[in-house]
Amino acid sequence: xxxxxxxxxxxxxxxxxxxxxxxxxxxxxxxxxxxxxxxxxxxxxxxxxxxxxxxxxxxxxxxxxxxxxxxxxxxxxxxxxxxxxxxxxxxxxxxxxxxxxxxxxxxxxxxxxxxxxxxxxxxxxxxxxxxxxxxxxxxxxxxxxxxxxxxxxxxxxxxxxxxxxxxxxxxxxxxxxxxxxxxxxxxxxxxxxxxxxxxxxxxxxxxxxxxxxxxxxxxxxxxxxxxxxxxxxxxxxxxxxxxxxxxxxxxxxxxxxxxxxxxxxxxxxxxxxxxxxxxxxxxxxxxxxxxxxxx
Length: 295
Ligand SMILES: [Zn+2]
Description:
Distance between the termini: 49 Å
Largest sheet: 8 strands, mixed
Helix content: 25-40%
Bound molecules: zinc ion
Oligomer: single chain
Low-confidence stretches: 1-32, 35-41
Radius of gyration: 19 Å
Strand order of the largest sheet: 1-2-3-7-8-6-4-5
């Protein structure tokens, strides 16, 4: 099967810090790598409510470990089966990264947190968990999504990648994990129509992939982007896949917004989907339960 690589990167600035987002897409079978940079401060002991905990965990970005590398290195790759990770394989890394490669405790803790907050039925296609680094302050995570069609049926496999340089404690990694899961939710084979030639796609097409008409991505596009001039859409705006993943993260982590600001509308978008409202509740409940904070 022929494969095609398409890549692009973009910079986003949030109120709380720098967000660096990157996408690499492979179609044919299709693969999507998506990333998010996020750090947060630890939960103060004074927090006594679930809502307070969620607010604290959400979007507190900061640089931490002073890791310098010339490129991205895969430190360790784990196989995923349900809630379990096993069969760890080490990557080749320079000596200054060995201590991070050997920090299995943090790597396992991050996985346990992800598996605790994302319901198992939502991550059935996840087969690998990879720890990488591209240095401090760069990309904090990827969702590597491979879609292919075989014998009339669409298949998918996914890998979660986490940059150990973006990890300080579990709070620091929360938004990255929710964001990467947002890609898994919006770019899976129920959302992306792998069988339709992108040149014949009637709906939102991104990086050579055609979305389904009723996909979250296409609906998001129709609501927020369709009226923009084509030139602006091509050059001057953030990648829609990153935008929907960021809005998803805000939808999960923040109280239901009021008002008519664009950022509020992008969060309210998700309230149109009862299954996502349920999923939001489940994830929020799981985060609070993980930190032993009653809902
Ligand atoms: Zn992303």
